[in-house]
């Protein structure tokens, strides 16, 4: 094992269980660590309960209203109510049924994408901003990925940067 892989395995093994910006019950949040707010919802669509009130139709079907949502996230096996709460439309839920706020959506993603969630927690995947020894902001999965269609669209690669000796002054 190379020294770099060894150090990386130690970092992963020593990763604390509390998630960034969150602390286990009975403990305070680690000073200087904050979590980024979820992206702004489409204007007029949140809170969801403004339209979704009354009996819930749990039948899997095509959506008539949410044309902007293209479900390309395991669409063969997933549907809205697998993640969105039928009981409280302004919340999500884990597979156990535990209600979840949109600000804690990383826990929902982590149920299926455990390796990415682990990497996010220790800073290998995702975006963080801030000082190495001060306040940090941890961005949620949905700050970069559309939860309904999370794969990044293909982009044309740029050429490599020029070496100093290749630059003309």
Rg over CA atoms, rounded to whole Å, is 20 Å
Which strand order spans the largest sheet, edge to edge or round the barrel? 1-5-4
Low-pLDDT ranges: 4-29
Order of helices and strands: HEEEHHEE
Q: Helix tally?
A: 3
Anisotropy-based shape: elongated
Q: How many angstroms separate the termini?
A: 44 Å
Largest sheet: 3 strands, mixed
Number of beta-strand segments = 5
Topology of this protein?
Layout: H1 3-13, E1 33-35, E2 92-93, E3 99-100, H2 105-112, H3 114-122, E4 128-130, E5 136-138
Parallel strand pairs: 1-5
Antiparallel strand pairs: 2-3, 4-5
Describe the structure.
This protein is of the alpha+beta class. The chain has a domain at 22-52 and 68-152. It has 3 helices and 5 strands; from the N terminus they run αβββααββ. The strands form 2 sheets. Strands 1-5-4 form a 3-stranded mixed β-sheet, with no helix packed on it. A hairpin with a 5-residue loop joins strand 2 and strand 3 (99-100). Helix 2 (105-112) crosses helix 3. The protein is elongated, with a radius of gyration of 20 Å. The N and C termini lie far apart (44 Å). Residues 4-29 have low confidence and may be disordered.
Note the main attributes of this structure.
169 residues; alpha+beta; 3-stranded mixed β-sheet; two-stranded antiparallel sheet; 3 helices; elongated
Short recap of the structure:
The chain has 169 residues and is an alpha+beta fold. The chain has helices at residues 3-13, 105-112, 114-122, and strands at 33-35, 92-93, 99-100, 128-130, 136-138. The protein has a domain at 22-52 and 68-152.
